[in-house]
Amino acid sequence: MILTVTPNPSLDRTYEVPALERGEVLRATGERMDPGGKGVNVSRAVAAAGHRTVAVVPLGGAPGALVAELLADEGIQVAPVPLKGHTRSNIAVAEPDGTLTKINAPGPRLSPVESEAILSMVGAYSPAADWIACCGSLPRGLGPEWYADLVTRAHGHGSRIALDTSGPSLLAALRARPDVVKPNAEELAEAVGRPLTTLGDAVKAAEELRQAGAGAVLASLGADGQLLVSAAGAFYGYAAVGAVRSNVGAGDASLAGFLAAGGEGPAALAAAVAHGAAAVQLPGSEMPTPSDLDPSAVTVTADIPLDRDLSE
């Protein structure tokens, strides 16, 4: 079972319009509603792959009730933590050429009691979890050390932690020694405080995060593939991809594939790449099922072309 923790989930509404024109009344040609948040997306991808998952989510108000309902519809067990405030609602406007304009709400401010309730809920499910994926930004009311506290407590239960966050929250959590961290290229550069222009730069940055406390680093590099740097060495994975329809949730799908495949080694990296490649070829935040995966398109190697320029 993979347990996910999403401190700041959302109800995501997407509207399709012929064109985005400021100051005009726009008539949508299509709309959809999805449960949102990085950890939520990991649970959705794990469920789509046919594995058991439990999603710990703080939920409040009518938007929170809808998030719980939508997750249950996808076969995901929800472990809700009641909030006094309302779960945030995010808006996305999609144009025919693929341009996506997003408005993300800040979300509710959590009280110390609500913060502790989330940590207690995680503790209740930790013994049954093969992995705990802690993902996304922190809502108002939770300090940057919150993830570090969660990692320390989960390790006390003997659980393995995968952390997907950025900025001060990532740096603070490294001291608690999470088992895996999953930055993208921009977040990896931010963590080490310098730009990354080659695969070699990304490998060196990942090694620095390991020195700072991460057990392993799974770095999503967009069209440039993915890196896994751990005590076993450094591996590079990439896949041939056809038309890209949407990159929303692709990194979350990658993490789900990685953890579902055991969360370590080249085989797990290959699963991460396959899931990410499948996700970008699906519409919106739709998560890949086993029939969408093409393992034959994936290459994983320890012979990393360190001089290769990063395109993103």
Automatic annotation (TrEMBL):
The UniProt keywords, alphabetically, are: ATP-binding, Kinase, Nucleotide-binding, Transferase
This protein's name = 1-phosphofructokinase
User: Recorded E.C. number(s)?
Assistant: 2.7.1.56
Q: Which Gene3D superfamilies match?
A: 3.40.1190.20
| Gene Ontology molecular functions | 1-phosphofructokinase activity
What positions does the domain Carbohydrate kinase PfkB occupy?
16-290
Pfam families of this UniProt entry?
A: PfkB (PF00294)
- Give the enzyme class: transferase
Q: Quote the PANTHER family the UniProt record gives.
A: 1-PHOSPHOFRUCTOKINASE (PTHR46566:SF5), 1-PHOSPHOFRUCTOKINASE-RELATED (PTHR46566)
Decide whether keyword Nucleotide-binding is in the record: yes
SUPFAM superfamilies in alphabetical order: Ribokinase-like
What would be the name of the gene that encodes this protein? pfkB
